[in-house]
């Protein structure tokens, strides 16, 4: 039972941390981020299992985390009001060619990052953007003026 409680606490902690870090940071991983992720995985494993290296202990932890993952996905699907908490909401960054600086600041993004994303999608500049939206997966999607 101790392993189940530890897995639940760590799952909730990871959920809170990923929501706090921000989706933009999680969508663009640098080599350092990958190394940090591996180190965090090891630290989490040590915290959850402590000195229990048995197959039964590993199975209990894996099943607990899988059930929690499926459970949060079901809650998000079933209860619309929980979706913003569990998945986040899309955020408009540019509307009619105007940068919404408050939303940009809240997401810790720069205009240069939006322009770089736009160039990758063959959009020349802000004046060509009807809407730029930071999606829940961390990617920026664009609606060009002629498409709107």
- Between the first and last Cα atoms, what is the distance in angstroms? 55 Å
Largest sheet: 4 strands, antiparallel
How many helical stretches? 7
Structural class of the helix and strand makeup?
Answer: alpha+beta
* Order of adjacent strands in the largest pleated sheet: 2-1-3-4
Low-confidence stretches: none
Helix proportion: 55-70%
What is the approximate shape?
A: elongated
- Taking Cα atoms only, what radius of gyration do you get, to the nearest Å? 20 Å
Order of helices and strands: HHHHHEEHHEE
Strand content: 5-15%
Average pLDDT: 86
Task: Describe this protein's structure.
The chain is of the alpha+beta class. Helix content is 59%, strand content 12%. The protein has helices spanning 2-21, 23-27, 31-49, 55-78, 83-86, 101-106, 111-120, and strands at residues 91-95, 98-99, 129-134, 140-144. Helix 1 (2-21) crosses helix 4 (55-78). The mean pLDDT is 86.
Observed structural traits:
alpha+beta; 7 helices; four-stranded antiparallel sheet; 4 strands; single chain; elongated; 148 residues
SSE inventory with pairings:
Layout: H1 2-21, H2 23-27, H3 31-49, H4 55-78, H5 83-86, E1 91-95, E2 98-99, H6 101-106, H7 111-120, E3 129-134, E4 140-144
Antiparallel strand pairs: 1-2, 1-3, 3-4
Helix pairs in contact: 1-3, 1-4
């Amino acid at each position: 039972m101790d392993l189940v409680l530890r897995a639940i606490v760590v799952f909730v902690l990871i959920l809170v941390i990923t929501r706090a870090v921000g989706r933009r940071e999680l969508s663009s991983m640098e080599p350092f981020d990958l190394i940090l992720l591996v180190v965090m995985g090891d630290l989490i494993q040590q915290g959850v299992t402590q000195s229990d290296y048995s197959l039964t202990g590993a199975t209990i932890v894996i099943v607990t985390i899988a059930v929690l993952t499926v459970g949060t996905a079901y809650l998000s699907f079933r209860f619309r009001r929980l979706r913003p908490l569990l998945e986040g909401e899309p955020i408009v960054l540019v509307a009619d060619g105007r940068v919404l600086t408050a939303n940009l600041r809240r997401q810790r993004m720069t205009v240069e990052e939006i322009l770089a994303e736009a160039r990758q999608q063959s959009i020349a500049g802000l004046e060509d953007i009807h809407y730029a939206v930071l999606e829940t997966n961390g990617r920026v999607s664009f609606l060009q003026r002629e498409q709107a």
